[in-house]
Specification:
The complex is a heterodimer.
Chain A: H1 2-22, H2 26-46, H3 50-75, H4 90-113, H5 128-136, H6 140-161
Helix pairs in contact in A: 1-2, 2-3
Chain B: H1 3-18, H2 21-27, H3 32-53, H4 69-78, H5 90-105, H6 125-133, H7 136-146, H8 150-173, H9 175-181, H10 186-191, H11 203-216, H12 228-231, H13 241-266, H14 278-299, H15 305-332
Classes of the chains: A mainly alpha, B mainly alpha.
Chain lengths: 174, 341
């Protein structure tokens, strides 16, 4: 039964990822990406990491995809315009060939070296209270540094986004 | 001859699935039928409550005091022609209307309607409900964009703005409950409230969450995405017939689920005097919460966009943090054990 779910979810992830890349309309691409990320969340649930899966949905699908959609809508006003496809040149064809060969080599090596379906380990995932305790005790310093980095990013983003407003003679901003 | 035993087996399996407890729960009580009928009932209740506020009578003829009016409206909408703008994206609109309905139903799976009466007793129930809620803005934005109409698009954008901005106070306002109970499981959160409902120690969190719920539901005073005087019907302007019915019902379903969530988190869920069964208490409290939302719609004006955003960032966020500090104070003087399970 988990095998069927795994296959279905993997299929969903791969097909919608391809759809996201190949869609002529950027909006459809974003929708495909959303489905792909939901599929990844499903895979997390199969692995017993429900908490991670819920945050995958809420952060990646709920926030990142919304951001992408929003950007597309603000940047591209005209809808229905089809992106012209460029024929890949000689270098492009060579690149595709090399990439394909590398992918084949890597997947072949994985298939040969690693058993395809490893035995499920006895216990996967850390219970949430334990994870929280670990984060707040053993990993307190990395956590604080992460928070600082995110805070600095937000401040930097706000600085970049701030538009200088001309001051009118009577002191009101426009 | 070979095919018959296999057929028998499949029939047996189907029978076992249909009569299994989970299936019955999904289809009938805490699941589909309950949510659907309650959403229809809420449509009627809203019309009646607002009619009473405005000294009107409201729906009257269909059934007892018009209680069948929402069902009649639904049947009417099903037979109506679907009119779409010429350049609208019909496939995307249908997909999004269906998706909205599914998203509105999905959180009901984690909400307990009685001791052990819950479709999926998840350890991450609270995060699951919020994760599903966070998918609404993108679908609504897609409906607004796919309609190819300025009213719809502006409505969708406003909905996105306010739902994304109010998501942060929403997560923070329930943090106090999670700290007190030490769990994200909604069933356990209700069990922890048997002695005292969380509305008492978490009164700030309750106020913040209720306000945020109004904004997430696009209800007065935060009904900017659907401002009738400016945007006709917001992101639903170009929907008609069945897609409109789906969108409309999805919003009432979301109202029902959100009220049930408030009941679960703050109002003790199924706990109540024993003369009524537990599910009745949950549904009753949910309807009372929804009626408060309706009374607010009948009595409050609409806020402006800048006030909405300023309230979110400078008032609700600060109050949510204050609630966390109050919770920490409560726990440090040893009162936390009242709700610890």
């Amino acid at each position: 039964m988990p095998d069927i779910a795994f296959l279905a979810l993997s299929g969903l992830v791969i097909v919608s990822a391809i759809f996201a890349l190949e869609a002529k309309e950027l909006i459809y691409g974003a929708v495909g990406l959303a489905f792909s990320l939901i599929g990844v969340a499903g895979l997390f649930i199969l692995l017993g990491a429900e908490y991670l899966a819920m945050f995958q949905i809420s952060v990646y699908v709920g926030a990142v995809v919304v951001l992408i959609l929003f950007t597309i809508m603000l940047v591209r006003r005209e809808s229905g315009r089809i992106v012209e496809e460029e024929e890949p040149g000689r270098l492009g064809r060579a690149g595709i060939l090399v990439a394909g060969l590398i992918a084949l080599a890597v997947s072949g090596a994985i298939v040969l070296l690693v058993p395809i379906s490893p035995e499920a380990p006895e216990f996967y995932g850390v219970p949430l209270p334990e994870l929280g305790r670990d984060l707040a005790s053993s990993y307190a310093v990395p956590l604080v540094i992460l928070g600082l980095v995110i805070g600095a990013t937000v401040v930097g983003g706000l600085t970049l986004a701030k538009v200088e407003r001309e001051k009118k003679p009577n002191g009101t901003t426009q | 001859m070979q095919g018959l035993p296999a057929l028998q087996e499949i029939l047996n399996l189907a029978l076992r699935i249909i009569t299994s407890r989970t299936f019955l729960e999904i289809v009938f009580f805490p699941g589909f039928l309950n949510v659907m009928l309650s959403a229809a009932f809420l449509v009627w209740l809203e019309r009646k409550v607002i009619a009473r506020i405005q000294l009107r009578i409201g729906p009257l003829y269909a059934g007892l005091s018009g209680i069948l009016q929402p069902i009649a409206d639904g049947v009417k909408l099903m037979f109506k022609e679907m009119i779409l703008p010429e350049l609208a994206d019909a496939k995307l609109l249908m997909l999004c209307a269906l998706g909205l309905m599914m998203l509105a139903f999905a959180p009901a799976a984690a909400i307990p309607f009685g001791e052990g009466l819950v479709i999926a007793n998840m350890d991450v129930g609270l995060v699951y409900v919020f994760a599903v809620m966070s998918l609404f803005p993108s679908v609504i934005l897609l409906i607004g964009w796919g309609s190819n109409s300025k009213y719809s698009f502006l409505g969708g954008l406003r909905s996105l703005f306010q739902q994304v901005a109010y998501e942060i106070p929403m997560w923070l306002s329930v943090l106090g409950i999670v700290m007190l109970t030490g769990t994200l499981n909604l069933t356990k959160i209700v069990e922890a409230q048997q002695r005292l409902w969380f509305v008492v120690p978490q009164v700030l969190g309750f106020a913040v969450f209720f306000t945020v719920a109004l904004a997430e539901l696009e209800r007065t005073p935060f009904d900017l995405p659907e401002a009738e005087t400016e945007l006709v019907m917001g992101w639903m302007t170009e929907l008609s017939g069945v897609p409109f019915m789906l969108g409309f019902l999805a919003m009432y379903t979301k109202l029902y689920v959100m009220s049930a969530l408030i009941t679960t988190l703050f109002l003790g869920g199924w706990s109540g005097p024993g003369f009524l069964p537990q599910p009745v208490w949950v549904v009753l409290k949910t309807f009372i919460v929804a009626s408060v939302v309706f009374v607010i719609r009948g009595t409050f004006p609409r806020v402006r966009v800048d006030i909405l955003l300023r309230t979110g960032w400078t008032r609700l966020l600060v109050l949510a943090f204050a609630n966390i500090f109050v919770t920490v104070a409560l726990m440090s003087i040893g009162l936390g054990s009242v709700w610890r399970i």
